[in-house]
Amino acid sequence: MYDCLILGGGIAGLQAAIQLGRYDHKVLVLDAGDGRSAICRSYHNILGFPEGISGPELRDTGRKQAEKYGVEFVFGKAASAEKKEEGFAVQSESGELYRAKRLLLATGIMDRIPPFPELLPTLGMSVYVCPDCDGYEVKDKSIIVMGSGKPGANMALTLRYFTDRITYVNHEQVELGEEKLAALKEKGIRCVEGPIEKVLADGPDFRGVALANGETLTAERGFIAFGGNEVKSHLAEQLGVELHKNKHVLVDPRTKMTNVEHVWAAGDVVAHSEQTTIAMGDGMQASIWIHKTLLEN
């Protein structure tokens, strides 16, 4: 029986694991090794890393730090979670059963990224998904927003704050409506209807896109905005945790505990701004209150 089982080894889960390890609690992190931080090649807005740091590097450093305090890690994904009288039982997809007194959901979300192999090396380097994180990186540069319908159009309009050299490619040709088309036109944003055949990139450097109609569009930077991101809250739902209408988990703002006693949530799966630094704070806050409740036993 673990004191705490953390589902998800991203930024929130790792920060919580480090702090709980420092409390000398018996902690297990069940980590599938995926998620946003596993694919981002560089974060630029984190205190102490002015030149940026990659998600995999941050995760690797955090895992080693947690292991120093005795935190255990298992590679795998949780298939089910159930509340028992003595705590929680979580079964992995491979059939292993783990039991813990407390449960922290740090399962995150995953952006809907089109399956162009050239995109992965560019993520966080020259192609981005978050205007709050990386809008500054496209300041006064030419950019292509690769997206679908209104989510893509809204991203283009948001980025107009940073640059006036924007082309929006409505890859899936989802109808925008007259109002959205008028807003794009008013801001001087070119809108191109039609599928992308190939992303043009030299390793981490985005160059543009080749369209299915034979046209090539070039730009210095890219953004992705397809909507329909996967919020990984199905385990929370199984446990009876209250969810926001967008499937994000609702938590107490002070403790990060959900409406289900002894179930906490932290990071992007929670209903708030999706930021690496907020995920760190969530993980720390949750771990402090998990520790407080463990002292009550």
In short:
It contains eight helices and 17 strands. It is of the alpha/beta class.
Oligomer: single chain
Main sheet, how many strands, which sense, barrel?
Answer: 7 strands, mixed
The H-level CATH homologous superfamily of the largest domain, spelled out, is: FAD/NAD(P)-binding domain
CATH architecture of the largest domain: 3-Layer(bba) Sandwich
Shape: elongated
State the end-to-end distance: 14 Å
- The top-level CATH class of the largest domain is Alpha Beta
Which bin fits the share of residues in helices? Answer: 25-40%
CATH topology of the largest domain: FAD/NAD(P)-binding domain
Structural class of the helix and strand makeup?
alpha/beta
Spatial extent as radius of gyration: 21 Å
Number of strands: 17
